[in-house]
């Protein structure tokens, strides 16, 4: 069953980014090679660990999570 709600409901650009980081983990050079070279990357971004998608969207099957 879908909730029809935004997965990352940020109310500003930085809040949106942090919503994503809280869920998918703060990107690192290991998970996203070159991320530290992006113009707006900040080494001071908070570090959040990655959460498992099956825990975030438990009603979505493997194919759905892969698509997401």
Overview of the structural elements:
- GO terms for molecular function: kinase activity.
- This is CDK3 kinase.
- Keywords: Kinase, Transferase.
- Helix content is 32%, strand content 0%.
- The chain has helices at 13-24, 53-56, 62-67.
- The mean pLDDT is 90.
Q: Which labels suit this protein?
A:
32% helix; 68 residues; mainly alpha; single chain; 3 helices
What topology emerges from the helices and strands here?
Blueprint: H1 13-24, H2 53-56, H3 62-67
Count of DSSP H/I helices: 3
Largest sheet: none
Indicate the low-confidence ranges by residue numbers: none
Structural class given helices, strands, pairing? mainly alpha
Assembly state: single chain
Helix content: 25-40%
Radius of gyration: 14 Å
Mean pLDDT: 90
Between the first and last Cα atoms, what is the distance in angstroms?
15 Å
| Silhouette | globular
Entry summary:
With 68 residues, the chain is an all-alpha fold. It has helices at residues 13-24, 53-56, 62-67.
């Amino acid at each position: 069953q879908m909730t029809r709600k935004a997965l990352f409901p940020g109310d500003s650009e930085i809040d949106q980014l942090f919503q994503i980081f809280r869920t998918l983990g703060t990107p690192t050079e290991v998970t996203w090679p070159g991320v530290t070279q992006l113009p707006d990357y900040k080494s001071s971004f908070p570090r959040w660990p990655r959460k498992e998608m099956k825990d975030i969207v438990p009603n979505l099957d493997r194919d759905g999570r892969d698509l997401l």
